[in-house]
Write a structure and sequence with these properties.
This protein is 29% helix and 27% strand. The strands form five sheets. The protein has an eight-stranded antiparallel beta sheet. It has a four-stranded parallel beta sheet with strand order 3-2-1-4. A hairpin with a 4-residue loop joins strand 13 and strand 14. The protein is of the alpha+beta class. It has helices at residues 10-21, 52-61, 74-85, 94-100, 103-112, 157-170, 228-244, 277-285, 289-297, 332-337, 374-387, 406-409, and strands spanning 2-6, 25-30, 43-46, 66-68, 120-123, 138-142, 152-154, 176-180, 185-194, 197-208, 217-222, 225-226, 250-258, 263-269, 313-319, 324-330, 343-346, 353-354, 365-371, 389-392, 414-415. The protein folds into three domains: 2-90, Rossmann fold (3-Layer(aba) Sandwich); 119-180, 2-Layer Sandwich (Dna Ligase, domain 1); 185-415, D-amino Acid Aminotransferase, Chain A, domain 1 (2-Layer Sandwich), CATH 3.30.470.20.
Length: 425
C-alpha cells in the first residue's frame, strides 16, 4: 500500500513514521525544495499541495492508494477533493472540507445557525458601503488561508485598502473577509468527534507577537483552571459546530475569543492544530490524533479515551528570527538533557532563508516546558530564554528573544476574566 502525504512539516514527520510502522510506503509532496519531512519519506515530489491538478496527476502516475495530511488546513481541501474525484478513501468529504477551509462559507453557516461570532463582510473589491457605520480598527483576512497569512488589523480606510490588496493576492478565490475587531483571550480548542459526539481534548490560550498590525502565535498556554460556566459554553459551542457541519468522526480545531463569560467563534477546521499541538494533545490526554486520522482514512473508527496529564503546567514556545540564513540552533539539546525543557522542535532546515516574520509558518524552532508549579515554570523559562540562540551562516544570533511578558504579569493558565487578544485567526 502506498500513501501520498501532503505538506512536509513537523507533524508530517510523525505521520510518515506511523505510516511506515504499518508497512505503508510513503511519498511526500511539498512546494519547498527541502522540507523537514523529506528525509523521512520513501519518495519526494516538489509539488505544491494547493495545485490540485498536479497532485491528481501524481496520484495517478505513482499509483497511490490514498492521500493524507494532518495538522494543516488548505492541504486538507486538496486531499478531500482528489480523494473524492478518484474514489480513494478519506475521512472527510469534499463539501465539508470546502466549508471548513473557507472563512466565507464558515461565517455564513455561523450566522445562519446563530453561532456567536464577529460581524463580517465578504468582498471581492474594497466596498466601504458594506461596513458603513463600523468602528475602526477592523480585521482583514483572505477567506482561504491559514497560519495568519494576510491577516491584518487596520486603523483607517487607507490601511484597509493596502491590507485588502495583500490579502486578496493570497486568496485563491480572490475574496477577502472584513471583520469587526473583538477583544478577549484567544482560545484554541482541540477536540475529537466520535460518532457525532464532540470530546474536548485541550484548551489553550494563544499569545501573539507584539507587532501592531499582525497576529502571530509565539506562545501557547495549556489551561489549568477555567470557570465551569465558561467551559460548558465551550463544550456546547464545539458540539453545535460539529452538528452544523455534519462532522461525525474527525479531529476538530476551533479558535474562539472569550471575555471570561462568553465565547465568540473566530473559525474552525476539521483537523488538529498545527505546530506541536499533536504532541501536546497526546501528552495531556494520551490521545494520538495522528494515529486516529490514519485509522479513519483506512476505514476504522478509533475509540477515544482521555487520561489526566502528568504535569500541571505546560507551555509551548515558538522561536522566530530576524532576517538571515539559518545555520543552527544552540542550547536546546543541553536544556533537554538537564530537564529545563521537555522537548524541542526544528521547523526549518539548514540554509533556510529567513525574511521578515509575516505568519506562523515563519517560525524556525520551538520547545515545550512542563512544571508542577508556576514558579518552577518561570524559573525554567528564564534560564531557557538566556540559553537558546539561533545562529545565522555568518555566526550571528538572529533569534527574536521574546520577553517573558505575561509569565509575570498575568496567570494565563487560568481563565476567570477577560484578556487582550483579538479575532485574528
Amino acid at each position: 500500500m502506498k500513501a501520498l502525504v501532503l505538506a512536509g512539516g513537523l507533524p508530517q514527520i510523525e505521520l510518515i513514521k506511523k505510516l511506515k510502522k504499518r508497512g505503508i510506503t510513503t511519498a511526500l509532496a511539498d512546494y519547498k525544495e527541502d522540507p523537514v519531512a523529506r528525509e523521512h519519506a520513501d519518495e519526494f515530489y516538489q509539488v505544491s499541495t494547493l495545485n490540485v491538478d498536479a497532485i491528481r496527476a501524481l496520484v495517478k502516475t505513482q499509483k497511490v492508494d490514498f492521500l493524507i495530511t494532518v495538522c494543516t488546513d488548505q492541504a486538507l481541501l486538496t486531499v478531500a477533493q482528489v480523494s473524492e474525484e478518484l474514489s480513494l478513501p478519506c475521512y472527510l468529504d469534499y463539501e465539508t472540507a470546502r466549508r471548513a477551509t473557507n472563512k466565507a462559507y464558515m461565517k455564513e453557516a455561523f450566522a445562519k445557525h446563530n453561532v456567536p461570532t464577529a460581524k463580517y463582510a465578504v468582498m471581492e473589491q474594497p466596498d466601504m458601503d458594506m461596513i458603513s457605520g463600523w468602528d475602526y480598527p477592523v480585521i482583514i483576512k483572505p477567506v482561504d488561508c491559514n497560519s495568519s497569512k494576510g491577516v491584518k488589523k487596520v486603523a483607517n480606510a487607507a490601511e484597509l485598502a493596502a491590507a485588502f490588496e495583500e490579502a486578496q493576492q493570497l486568496s485563491r478565490t480572490r475574496k477577502v473577509i472584513v471583520e469587526e475587531f473583538l477583544a478577549g483571550k484567544e482560545l484554541s480548542i482541540d477536540a475529537y468527534v466520535e460518532n457525532g459526539k464532540a470530546i474536548i481534548l485541550d484548551i489553550t490560550v494563544s499569545e501573539k507577537t507584539d507587532d501592531k498590525d499582525m497576529f502571530i502565535i509565539f506562545r501557547t498556554w495549556h489551561i489549568v483552571k477555567i470557570a465551569e460556566k465558561l467551559k460548558n459554553k465551550i463544550r456546547e459551542t464545539t458540539q453545535r459546530i460539529a452538528d452544523i457541519f455534519g462532522v461525525k468522526n474527525a479531529p476538530m480545531l476551533i479558535q474562539m475569543l472569550t471575555d471570561g463569560n462568553n465565547v465568540y467563534v473566530i473559525e474552525f477546521s476539521v483537523r488538529t492544530g498545527g505546530g506541536v499541538k499533536h504532541l501536546s494533545v497526546w501528552r495531556k490526554t494520551g490521545v494520538d490524533v495522528i494515529e486516529a486520522v490514519i485509522d479513519l482514512t483506512l476505514g476504522r473508527k478509533p475509540h477515544i479515551q482521555v487520561r489526566e496529564s502528568k504535569w500541571k503546567y505546560m507551555l509551548d514556545e515558538y522561536i522566530y528570527c530576524y532576517p538571515g540564513i539559518y545555520d543552527h540552533t544552540e542550547g536546546l539539546e543541553e536544556l533537554k538533557k538537564d530537564g529545563s525543557i521537555l522537548d524541542y522542535y526544528i521547523f526549518q532546515g539548514k540554509g533556510s532563508k529567513l525574511g521578515t516574520v509575516t505568519n506562523s509558518g515563519d517560525r524556525i524552532a520551538g520547545f515545550t516546558v512542563v512544571a508542577d508549579s508556576r514558579d518552577e515554570l518561570m524559573n525554567k523559562y528564564i534560564k531557557i530564554n538566556k540559553s537558546v540562540h539561533v545562529i545565522s551562516e555568518n555566526g550571528y544570533d538572529i533569534m527574536r528573544h521574546q520577553l517573558p511578558g505575561n509569565l509575570y504579569e498575568e496567570n494565563m493558565f487560568e481563565i476567570v476574566s477577560g484578556g487582550e487578544n483579538t479575532n485574528a485567526g
